[in-house]
Protein 1
Amino acid sequence: MKNNVVKAGLFSMILLGMISCVDKEKEFADNRISELEIYVDSLNKVSAEERQENWNEIAADYEAKNANANEALLGLEGSDRDISQEKVNASNAKYDEIKVTVISKNELATSEDLTQYKKVSARQLLRDRLFGAGKIGSDMNFSWVNKNNILSVYDNYYQSYKANKDNFTREDYDEAKLLFEALDTRKNKVEKQGLSASDNMKIASIKVKLAPMFKFDRMTAKSRENLEAKE
């Protein structure tokens, strides 16, 4: 009888410890996400001129806070993660809208310049959304991805892709797939640098989920664009 009581007590202590750990992970994630939300919302209170002049610093601060929020998401599961991911995605979308307005009109002298800017800007916004602001440029350099952060890079790509794919054009899908293939090429090098078996399995799971989505979503976008063209 005494042994049973002791066992029950130990089980209760372990259970309470697990619950406490989960609560701490959620509190940590909530704080990181709140920092991101507050920062992005504060940008709307800054004048367009100030944003233009200080954009490099703003982008760096945003990237740091966004990275912290996404890293904290890895400690959550189930509905907690889904709800928190939606908050991060909402802040990312707000930031993207602000970023588009940071344009030097003096550099857009002709309509041709403006058209070209919109094309380049759309691609860059997609890269920023999938990988983080300023992480990937037109050179598609993934040298910053290493064995310590590669899982979070894949996971952030997957979560951002799911959240935004319904608004993608066929060009967006082609660009997204090209970027993913470039990330995969980097993964081959990272594997030789000591990528853990656990992270490798999680990345493989993400790739399995994405493979059919690339094909199906692009076909859906094509049908949608054809329908809109007829209207």
Note: The chain has a mean pLDDT of 79.
Protein 2
Amino acid sequence: MASQIDGSFDYTATGVLGDKRNTMLRNELHLRDKVGHVKTRGFALPSEGYVYGLPNDRRDFNAAYALRGWAGTYPEQIPFSSNKQATERDFMHLNRGALTAGLVKPTENFDYRAMHDIRQPLYKNKRSGKMSRRLPPTMVFGVPSRPSTPIYELLEHKYQDKWLATRQKEIQAKRSAEAKRRVMSAPLASRGNQIIYETRASVLRTFQNPVDPPPLWHLTRFTTSARPHIQTFRTDASKSGALKNLETDRIARQGNYGSGIYESAKY
């Protein structure tokens, strides 16, 4: 026995993690390292009557075994009543029905789901049966090979020439736009005779009236009951006058929304 060996508890955590006991000799957390020795680890072997390996499944496939229907060879057929698969609840239809009924609170939604049990339809797997597809005689199986590197285009600097041509077009378009802007911003006396001026009729033809985007969707109950608790302006006229003054004062202020400090005059 391990407890009968002299000095067996010298390299254990005796007195630190409890009194002497035989489990300390087998627990790695209770053992202490010996100077100049390696740790000895191992697993306990099973008892003497233990048999290693897998059991052999011996079956006598004779006539009697065949007459019994080859029991155990094929999986047993489950009755039709117990073979029915359980479907999941369709929460999308439940939420849509609750909104249609005007239920938006969590408690009301919970009661609606308790009273209505809507399940998702059971879609049969179309690939479960044997499906055969006629393949064309020119069908090629495998992974397509990687196209070869266009070495000739690399040697000819084709990609560089293409990039340079694109840059030249961009620079030319930028120069044309800049020249047109300079001509249009010049006085009328210094402009040429070949410039077509925009008239009021041509501007109105190309002008599109700004259309306000449609408002966001809100629940009907909030459009009537959700009102502000504090009214800063006493009347609508005072509110419109304050907004008009804000629009006028915004010109001389800094910031994106015209609410910053006053800036100096620009000449």
Note: The chain is about 30% helix and 0% strand.
Protein 3
Amino acid sequence: MSIKTQGTDLYAIDPLLGTLIFVSCVTSIDGIDSAIDQIETTCLNDQAREYESGLATPGTATFGINTDPSDPVHVRMHQLKTQGLKLDWVIGWSDGRVDGAGIPPTVEKVGNVSSFDLPPTRTWLTFRGHMSSYPFSFAQNDVVKSSIGVQISGEPVLIAKVAAQ
């Protein structure tokens, strides 16, 4: 079964406040991956190159937003980008909506550490990374947009929705 993109939500945890950030007006999300490097193991007497899998090299994710300076989240994200802070991110897929609204995660705090508590009624894609770019685009006959880059650290984790019993 295919899952539609309409109804997808993007969240992060503010690393200084330990609070949930709901990123509004996301228009696209791309590139969340970590490619596996290759280690060459070819011997001189081989007729073709041989490889083993190596370390994962996290890539750069991008997400587009219609930038709104009156949205405190858009302003806060720009502040966090300029500070170079690493955030925990999660994408809630469109397969977990109730009455047209997404089921949000909650933030669990243990001491100074905050983490997501993800409802099992929705598919989630979690990753960690810092915003590496937050450019502003001003085009004719358009709204102000940003295509925000996130340098991923570590491996993204896909958590499938638990089927209803």
Note: The longest helix spans residues 72-83.
Protein 4
Amino acid sequence: MHTYLRAIGFRECKNRQQLEDIYRHTLNTPNRKIMTTISVDTSLLQFEKDFGKNFGLSLVGEYDIKGSLSIEHYFPYLKGDRFMQFENITIQKQTDKESYAGVCEDYHLGMTIIFYVINIADYAKSKWLNYSNRQITKVKFSALSVAGTVLLGMHHSKHQIAVESKGRNRRNQLLDAARNGDTDAMEQLTYDEMNTYTSISSRVIKEDVLSIIDTSFMPCGVECDHYMVIGNIYAVEKLQNIYSKEIVYNLLIEANGLMINVGINEADLQGEPKVGRRFRGEIWLQGVVTI
């Protein structure tokens, strides 16, 4: 059973028979069926069934020359609605099945972002047509979560917003300069990091850490595409799974400059999500890449 089925409204799916019913429903009434050649005698098939607005279940399998279809794996998905632009996004095949991980460097965030590629068949088709060598730069991020908490937002005055924006722009300029080999920029960044560490260390003694940190985006656990996030909520959609009738929230959050749509079951979310508040939880990061 997939851990994140509950995130799209299948919280009560607890045995193989219930999953088989959802399987058959997806195979018999898919919203999208994408077929592409991956070898001389084999085609890749991806079925997508929407069980609500922008979320559902995807089945991926192979269709051979004898007309036999074998489903290789399945995964729940939520599709994002905001494009993020990067210098380059590389796609790497996962070894055990026909699935892919997207990898992009966010130099301003200072880390490598890894996500699960939703549009598997689209990328497989680009490989077969020899388009995969073209540079990929755009992705719509989304994520699923099985446990989250709503936090109060942090109030920022216009002056604070202006100061933070100026500081962020300055840091980005220093990072760009450091990437080009500017040693002065490297030293300044190191000095700034030391000052930040000293400031936070003294504040955390008297203040709660959640009142100091506005947003965060950090790798979590052993899975490379799992992250612990704290993000400002920009939009809230309350949706219903048309099959199970369970309620699913689609939260558009901003975490360290990344815009991500997060899907979570109403039963797994503590607190009432509202614009201006914050979401904290572990997420499985997904993305639809533009090829």
Note: Residues 158-179 form the longest helix (22 residues).
